[in-house]
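Aggregate trends can hide what the representation actually does to any particular protein. The sequence in question and its structure tokens are set out directly beneath this paragraph.
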Amino acid sequence: MASGLYWFYDLLAIGVALIFLYVGAKRGLMRSVVLVALTAASIVVSWFASTVFSPVIYERFLKEHVYNFAYDSVSAVKPSAMASQAVNNGDYGVEITEDEAQSLLDKLDGDFVEKAAEALKSNGASDSINALESGIQATVIDRLVNIIAGGKVSDATMREILNEVSVTDRDFRGLMNTFVKGNADDTAGLIEEKMLAPAVKMFLKGGIWILSMFILMIVARAVSNLFKKLNGVPIIGPINSTLGAALGVAEGLVVIYLISQVIRGVCLLTSNSLMFLNMDAVNATYIFRYFVNFNILSVFN
């Protein structure tokens, strides 16, 4: 049944091509070229604006608020309580009290995760040092993410955000080493500078880019509309319309190719298990299969 529906893909390709042919002919070559050029310029200008203004806006209007948020979150947690939780969370057969954790922190010289693992091992934990470090580190990261989230977003969401700005396990261990020293100012400063600032700037950059693109595309369409009347000019009009249709078809082919690669990806991810979205149905088409099986990278080899 799936392969019997192959004609849908060919109709989709033909339909997209015809739509772009019609739109291209209606716009005309000059209007299409102007719109494409202005769109490309809008992308570049928006990228530049977002890159330049996002750090400026953050430094002037948001940095202090982000730091205060981090400071309040850090101040609400006792280092000794977190240290004991990090050690006791795993099933190591050894536990330490909060006072014992504070004693460990008072004598701490080096990496907390490493020293805590050594302390557990010396107190009779059966796990290897590496296993102890991995377990303590996992708990430390979970607790630090919870502190950084501060109840504003879920811990899972905050972890995804921090992953996006390339915060590593080593960064978390460094943060923990600062935190257990009991200096809330330094810890909050580290959270703001290394973790929250990049995340906030990332969202600012995206928002500025979208807003800039929206404004510039309004301007681009208004400018391109100045060429509408060219299609009504004798001799020039039909030529402009015909060439615009050709450019429209070219744009349509690009769109069809992008659609085909999305469908190909779905087929691969689902192991061709879907009734309609599978390579048997796609390869049964007369037109669409050429788009699906075309490797654009081979053009550059």
In short: The radius of gyration is 29 Å.
